[in-house]
Design goal:
Elements: E1 6-11, H1 13-29, E2 33-36, E3 42-46, E4 49-52, H2 60-68, E5 78-83, H3 91-102, E6 107-109, H4 128-138, H5 151-160, E7 165-175, E8 186-191, E9 197-199, E10 201-204, H6 211-223, E11 228-237, E12 250-260, E13 273-277, H7 279-285, H8 290-303
Parallel strand pairs: 1-2, 1-5, 5-6, 7-12
Antiparallel strand pairs: 3-4, 7-8, 7-10, 8-9, 8-13, 11-12
Length: 306
């Protein structure tokens, strides 16, 4: 497993620090990068607050804020894991849970909470060994699962989260072959994520990541191709009614033209099939998800004749 999976561990350092350290070792051995806590020992307790040997600060407020700033470093594939044996989470971890949930960080727990009324969806409680095994085998975090009688609670919880704007970058990938007079073919992939329809290659931009870097990364991860990023094609909000994202969240799509020197695609687990074909033919013949279709239509009008 690569280190694109990152986590922050939370829990009562007073009661469960040995278990927190055990989970840290387990996750690290499984290839999950643990941003916090550091490999350290407890130096002292002040008013029930544990100070670690690695803590450079003495002010409890500063220590807590520095700890919480690790949530901003998580990026895509990042999550918070709460070590809460017998459901005990404690005061500091309770505060951290509220911040993590309002910031839309995926949260997982070792046990059902007993001392806190926080919402936990049906797929959020995982023993650390099982979560590490799941991530290693699937290359993804478990998806939320909501019981039939919890839909209203789940929606109210989602409405509290503040993801801000989600920016996704995609590419109309052209094969830049030796015959300059040949009709350009573009790469499209079919995936279960888009209900078995075809789409362009792309994905979400990570925190502090430049658009071109994100697009090169996504293309490499999803197809194995090395991409040369070309000109900007379009920027738009999610197509109305496309039906794949949470209501009320602003999604911005930035699509660019990309050139590759090979058609030897190696798909990862995100897509099931791929096809190279002219844009006009793809629009006429393939079932496409609405956002990608919008981009391909713009490309076809600008660079080809339909």
């Amino acid at each position: 497993m690569d280190a694109r999976f990152r986590c922050v561990l939370h829990g009562s350092f007073c009661r469960h620090f040995e278990e927190i350290k055990r989970v840290r070792r387990l996750f690290s051995e499984a290839g999950i990068e643990v941003l916090a806590p550091a490999l350290s020992e407890i130096r002292s307790f002040e008013d029930g607050f544990a100070l670690l040997e690695s803590d450079a600060e003495k002010d409890q407020r500063m220590i807590e804020l520095l700890y919480l700033h690790n949530l901003k470093r998580l990026g895509e594939g990042g999550f918070s894991y709460f070590v809460c044996p017998e459901g005990y989470i404690g005061k500091s971890a309770s505060y951290e849970l509220g911040i993590a949930q309002i910031a839309n960080v995926p949260c997982f727990f070792s046990d059902r909470l007993a001392d806190h009324p926080a919402y936990q969806h049906a797929n959020s409680v995982w023993r650390p060994e099982l979560l590490a095994e799941y991530v290693a085998e699937r290359g993804a975090l478990p998806e939320p699962r909501v019981k039939a009688d919890e839909h209203r609670i789940h929606r109210l919880w989602q409405d509290l989260m503040v993801p801000g704007s989600i920016v996704a970058v995609g590419g109309i990938i052209e094969y830049d072959g030796p015959d300059a007079s040949a009709e350009k073919e573009v790469l499209l992939v079919r995936t279960h994520k888009w209900k078995d329809r075809y789409s362009v290659v792309g994905g979400k931009v990570r925190r502090n990541e430049r658009l071109d870097d994100a697009l090169r990364r996504e293309i490499k991860e999803e197809t194995g191709l090395d991409a040369g990023i070309g000109g900007h094609l379009c920027t738009f909000d999610q197509i109305s009614g496309s039906g794949y994202y949470q209501a009320g969240v602003q999604h911005v799509f930035v699509d660019k033209i990309v050139k590759v020197g090979s058609k030897n695609v190696r798909l990862n687990e995100e897509a099931q099939e791929y096809v190279w074909m002219p844009a006009a033919a793809a629009l006429a013949e393939l079932p496409m998800e609405p956002n990608a279709k919008h981009t391909l239509e713009l490309y076809a009008r600008a660079f080809t004749t339909i």
